[in-house]
Amino acid sequence: MRLSGAGAGRRRRARVGRLARVAVRSVGRAGEPRTGPGTTPDDEGGTTMVEQAHGVDAQDDGTPAVAVLGGGVMGEALVSALLTGGWPADRVEVTERAQERAAQIAERYGVRTGADNAHAVQRADVVLLAVKPNVVPAVLTEVAPALRAGALVVSVAAGVPLATYESALPAGTPVVRVMPNTPAVVGKGASAIAPGAAAGEEHLALVERVLAATGLVVRVAEKDLDAVTAISGSGPAYAFYLIDAMAEAGVLLGLTRDLATRLAVATVEGAGALAAQGEHPAVLRERVSSPGGTTVAAVAQLDAHAVRAGVVAAARAAFDRSRELGRS
Ligand SMILES: NC(=O)c1ccc[n+]([C@@H]2O[C@H](COP(=O)([O-])OP(=O)(O)OC[C@H]3O[C@@H](n4cnc5c(N)ncnc54)[C@H](OP(=O)(O)O)[C@@H]3O)[C@@H](O)[C@H]2O)c1
């Protein structure tokens, strides 16, 4: 049941305070390891953060309750990441229209599942929207009256602007947009998060905690999400395209398809890991290009075929399309 008036105000402040404490606990100070929910001792007097949280709201263990609306590819990746990151399964609920799929998720992750979005959000501190963009307006209409005061709404729906959520939800609802990518499924994703008008540091920190096990998470302004979509959102497809082309070349040169594919995958994975250490990619490329050697001959062909210009044009097309979809 929703609270109103002064009761709702108190409840909202208490809940936001609790979200903030949990988020700060999770992120920790620079250089400190992250710990699972409810395990960090408080260094100011021996009380645990969880005990302090109990002082605010004794109904749960202090871990925000999460409702994931939509149990498809991305919804499942988020549930998996939450549990990998140490979130208790009993603090996660998933809604899904298809009963069979809901049963599969319940069985796989031990989380509560259902088909009623409004019912699920009544219990949630964090509502994660993982439905297709065209379904978002209908889901918002459904859940707006049931949303708890102070609940954080997070959406991974591509191209749906923050304004759509903010105009459909109660005034002051904190909203954060996320642009994830599919390698999140294996904990190697890259996500950008953008805050709405009512989302503060504590909300961004909480989203970072929710996404921690999906891979890299960066903060951006909403205006940059189309560019993010063009680079990391659509980017996995560019890398798959390159892997496929390298494997095809291997077959052309006499390798079996299986061997050529395994070599191409391991090479792209290894190059990514090396580049992640921070050296400029151009320097890394020069380092493997010995004078008059094989690599420099190959890279000259990439230049002759305007591969760099092709990548830039591809990203530009994705950017334009993302803006177009956001307006429709
Ligand atoms: N997959 C990606 O790589 C990726 C990357 C970035 C962003 N995203 C975003 O993530 C969102 C989900 O994408 P996806 O690839 O996971 O799609 P998906 O696999 O189709 O998942 C969407 C799920 O939501 C369910 N659903 C539909 N209407 C619902 C409702 N009213 N209440 C509860 N559940 C409902 C669908 O069930 P039915 O099948 O029964 O309709 C489906 O299982 C999209 O907004 C997309 O833009 C995805």
In a nutshell, what does this entry contain?
This protein has helices at residues 5-27, 49-56, 73-84, 99-109, 117-122, 136-143, 162-168, 201-211, 225-233, 235-252, 257-275, 281-287, 294-304, 307-327; strands at residues 66-69, 92-95, 112-114, 126-129, 152-155, 175-179, 189-195, 215-219. By secondary structure, the chain is an alpha/beta fold.
Note down, in words, how this protein is organized:
With 328 residues, this protein is α/β, with parallel strands linked by helices. It has 2 domains: 5-228, 3-Layer(aba) Sandwich (Rossmann fold); 233-327, Orthogonal Bundle (ProC C-terminal domain-like fold). It contains 14 helices and 8 strands. It has helices at residues 5-27, 49-56, 73-84, 99-109, 117-122, 136-143, 162-168, 201-211, 225-233, 235-252, 257-275, 281-287, 294-304, 307-327, and strands at 66-69, 92-95, 112-114, 126-129, 152-155, 175-179, 189-195, 215-219. The chain has an 8-stranded mixed β-sheet, with helices on both faces. Helix 1 (5-27) crosses helix 8 (201-211), helix 9 (225-233) crosses helix 14 and helix 10 packs across helix 11. The chain starts with a helix and ends with a helix. NADP nicotinamide-adenine-dinucleotide phosphate binds at residues 69-75, 95-98, 101, 117, 130-133, 135, 139, 156-158, 180-182, 233. Residues 25-40 have a biased composition (Low complexity).
Terminal-residue CA separation: 35 Å
Question: What is the CATH topology of the largest domain?
Answer: Rossmann fold
Q: Assign an overall shape.
A: elongated
State the share of residues found in helices, binned by percent.
40-55%
Instruction: Let me know the CATH homologous superfamily of the largest domain.
Output: NAD(P)-binding Rossmann-like Domain
Radius of gyration: 23 Å
Taking pLDDT < 50 over at least 5 consecutive residues as the criterion, the unreliable ranges are: 1-59
Strand content: 5-15%
Q: What's the level 1 CATH class of the largest domain? A: Alpha Beta
Q: Strand sequence of the main sheet, in spatial order?
A: 3-2-1-4-5-6-7-8
Protein name: Pyrroline-5-carboxylate reductase
InterPro entries: 6-PGluconate_DH-like_C_sf, NAD(P)-bd_dom_sf, P5C_Rdtase_cat_N, P5CR-like_CS, P5CR_dimer, Pyrroline-COOH_reductase
Enzyme class: oxidoreductase
EC number: 1.5.1.2
